[in-house]
Amino acid sequence: MDRRFTDEELRMAKGVDLCQVAEALGYTVRRIGKYHTLKEMDSIRIYNRTNWFRWSRQGERGANGGSQIDFLKVFAGMSVKEAVFWLLDFAGCPRNRGTEKRLVNWEKMIHEKTSGPERRPFVLPDKASDNRRVIQYLTKKRCISGNTVRWFIERGMVYESAEYHNAVFLGTDAEGTVRFASMRGTYDKGGKSFKCDVEGNDKNYGFHVERKNADSVAVFEAAIDLMSYVDIYRDTGEHLLALGMVSDQPLEQYLKDHPEIRCIRFCLDNDSAGEKAALELAKKYRERGYSVKVDGPPAEYKDYNEWLVGRKTRAGDEIISKTR
C-alpha cells in the first residue's frame, strides 16, 4: 500500500480537534480563558483546539509544542506516519484497517503512562543577589512607583531569580506557606515578555494582599495589575487577589480561607476573555449570596497596568484617590 499521504489527508489529519485527541488518550481537558490545558499536565496550553505548547519544557526542542501530529509523537510515542494514520482513523477516514489494532495498544500504553498525574516537585527559582533588574523593569517599563515595588519585595512577595533574572511573584496559603509562583521576564523579546508558572505549583492559590477584618476583595487577572492598582489607589483597605488566569480556583480557595468576605469586585481585563469571565463569575458569586461588582479599568485601557502607564506618561494628569 502507498504510505505517502495526500495534501487532503494531511489537511484532514491537522483538522482534528486536539482537545478530543487528548481526551481519547486519557487526559482531562480544561478550558482557561482563550486556551485549554490538561489536568494531568497544567503546563500544557492548547490553542484554537489545533496546536499546543508546553511552557515547562522550553529547552527541549521538538518536544514542547506543535500540531496534533507532534502531540501524538510526544505523548503516544508514535512516528509521524503512525500519527497521521491514527488521526485519519480518529476522523473516521482510515487508510489502513490495521490501524485499529495499533490504536488499542497505543491507548493501553497511554493509560498506563497517565494513570498518575505528571506532577514535579514545587521548587522555587534561586534568588539573585539583589532585585535590581526586577525593580528597573517594574518601575521603568511598567511605571509602578519604586515605593510600591519595594513594599512588595520587602514583604517577600516578589523577587528576582538568579539564573534568568525573571520577576517571581509568590502566592501563599492561609498559614503563609508559598504554594504558588509565576514568573515574568524583565526584558522583551520580539515585543513579548517571557511568562509562565513555576512547575508544580498549586493553582488553588494566587498572588494576594491580605487585609485583616476586611469584608471585600478586589480580584485581578495578573500580579502586575494588582500592583498597579495599589500604586493608583494606595491602601483601599480591601483584600486583593490576582488569579494568574481567568479561572476562579484561587478565589474559591481565598473565600474558604476568609469567610468574612461578603463583597467581591472583579477587576479583570477589558478584552473578550476578561469581560466574559467577569460576567460569568459575577453571576456565579451573586447567586451564592455575595455582593458583586464588575469594576475594571476605564474602557480605553486593556488592564490596570496599561491604565497606570497611560496616566503616568501623560503630562499633568494626576492619579486620583479611590472613592468607594
Could you characterize the architecture of this molecule?
With 324 residues, the chain is of the alpha+beta class. Helices cover 35% and strands 20% of the residues. It has eleven helices and 14 strands. The chain has helices spanning 7-13, 18-24, 68-76, 80-90, 99-113, 132-141, 146-154, 223-233, 249-257, 272-287, 304-312, and strands at 29-32, 35-38, 44-47, 51-54, 65-66, 158-160, 167-172, 178-189, 192-197, 207-209, 216-220, 239-242, 263-266, 291-294. Strands 1-2-3-4-5 form a five-stranded antiparallel β-sheet. A five-stranded mixed β-sheet has the order 10-12-11-13-14, with helices on both faces. The protein is globular, with a radius of gyration of 23 Å. The termini are far apart. The model is unreliable at 57-61, 97-117 and 315-324 (pLDDT under 50).
